[in-house]
Design goal:
single chain, mainly alpha, two-stranded antiparallel sheet
Length: 283
């Protein structure tokens, strides 16, 4: 399945992107699931029915719903072609991720085409990487127009795309001068903030993690920023209950401020690290 192609009227801005509600996204995801199922992309996971052998179970065994309940803690999502259109947002996102885990493209190598009574193909080899990439593209084509914009990552996680012009900073490679511990902290903060299932607390903790990284590089920040700018940067974190908790701090701010702080601190980290690399000649 090819990645989305943007046609002239979309590239030129003559037609604005649609904004989808949850009902529309559920319908599109359900349609994608039925298409993949019709191409036997879930035969390895869910098995198949043969006119001679009856039901031949797949990886999930004979009780698919039970397997899903035990392994994904999801109930009442199977059969997917009936249930997807009824799911709330968190369950829909979790189901999309589950299906990314289970999807696999069948290979004709070693396969048997059972012609009797139109039984169909019975496969023994499957390509998970190919199928996962196709599933990711298919559902992202719907998710990117829902709410603030989501995508299914190449790790199979529903995550926020990020505001136009800011998505790139979340994908940017962290300079090696950060050291591995800080690189891991930054990656964890970005992942937690972008997660489609993250709570407000999760997103606040992601910002707190970035502030801790900035604290580590505060001596270098003093060298590359005016003192009043450096002081103000940490005052923001103090005032918005991100560092030292006290009664004067704000904690009931609009979530939009949380997003602003995340992008501010992430961009500042990248700026400081690149200034350090320029000064030290590191690469």
């Amino acid at each position: 399945m090819p990645a989305r192609r943007y046609y002239y009227h979309q590239r030129s801005g003559a037609q604005q992107p649609p904004r989808l509600d949850l009902e529309a996204v559920r319908k599109l995801v359900s349609s994608s699931y039925r298409l993949f199922a019709s191409r036997d992309y879930f035969q390895e996971a869910f098995g198949y029915r043969c006119v001679d052998e009856g039901f031949v179970p797949g990886i999930c065994g004979e009780d698919v719903g039970g397997w899903i309940h035990v392994n994904a803690w999801l109930d009442s999502v199977y059969p997917f072609d009936e249930k997807i259109s009824l799911l709330d947002e968190p369950t829909l996102f979790a189901t999309i991720e589950l299906l990314w885990d289970l999807v696999s493209a069948p290979s004709k190598e070693g396969a048997h085409h059972h012609t009797f009574s139109g039984c169909g193909w019975h496969y023994v080899k499957f390509d998970k990487a190919k199928a996962r990439d196709e599933w990711r593209i298919a559902v992202t084509n719907a998710l990117e127009f829902y709410g603030e914009g989501f995508e299914l990552s190449d790790r199979g996680e529903v995550q926020r795309i990020g505001k136009p012009g800011l998505a790139e900073i979340m994908e940017a490679t962290v300079p090696r001068s950060a050291n591995q511990e800080n690189i891991d902290k930054i990656a964890d903060a970005v992942r937690r903030f972008r997660s489609g299932r993250s709570s407000r607390k999760d997103r606040q903790e992601a910002v707190e993690e970035l502030v801790k990284v900035l604290e580590f590089f505060r001596p270098q920040i003093k060298q590359h920023m005016f003192r009043k700018d450096e002081d103000r940067l940490f005052e923001i974190a103090n005032e918005f209950s991100l560092r030292h908790h006290n009664q004067r701090q704000k904690s009931d701010y609009d979530p939009a401020w949380l997003s602003w702080m995340f992008y501010l601190y992430l961009a500042t980290i990248h700026l400081v690290l690149r200034l350090i690399e320029r000064e030290t000649g590191a690469t």
